[in-house]
């Protein structure tokens, strides 16, 4: 078994060299030692790994397949040795993450940036887009998504937190227009609406019978950017229906006031998704663990924090 394991680094060196002689120089052994090791490996596997001529050598199809697995195995072994030598789990390499624009800006980016600070070998690349990316096709290691997920056998998902909504308005607006006491009174107030994909996002409320109803807010001001909706609401433009995580600082400072606390009925799951692989990489596992442990508190309702 020991000799079989020892043959793998020799085979990889030969596969990555133009000749057995060059591989021998890298390994500080004789050319005949490399050739004999490869021959014994081919005999054990029952396949030809190299096409050999007097002037060149190249991998066969079987050799290319075997090389990919051997290279991966040696990389994993090297990573494990580095982790043990460092005395703690240290992620390394590039981590490409796709996140929704505002949620990514306010919540995801700070957490993953802190993770990169903890792991000096980690290279973090975050793409901010509300478009649902194709992770394998576009080379992403991880994505954060809001709402129900489509069935996919090629992706793995973990729930991170809940995306909840709040009705809010500025104190000046409430002083001038009054505070609605029921969902029905919302239609009598100025609204600042959010437009998504060309359509106004319907507001969801619970009525007196605790039933959920939806309606299009009577908005004269409409924005396709939630940050802009928040800014207009802070400036006294009307009532807005926005995520807690987006307005929590304004609710704490008092520049926005929550209204109809028990009538808002917007809540959607937030997931981390990543391509299904036989072994989850350390960098992805640590990123998901970071989000699971710290994201819920960042997205929680203000009333749960005071």
From TrEMBL:
Q: Which domain of life is it from?
A: Bacteria
An example of a Pfam family matching this protein is HTH_1
Keyword annotations from UniProtKB, A to Z: DNA-binding, Transcription, Transcription regulation
Q: Which GO terms describe its molecular function?
A: DNA binding; DNA-binding transcription factor activity
Please list the residue ranges annotated as the HTH lysR-type domain. 1-60
Q: What family does the entry list?
A: Belongs to the LysR transcriptional regulatory family.
Its name, as the record gives it, is: LysR family transcriptional regulator
Q: Which organism is it from?
A: Leclercia adecarboxylata
Q: What is the lineage of its organism?
A: Bacteria, Pseudomonadati, Pseudomonadota, Gammaproteobacteria, Enterobacterales
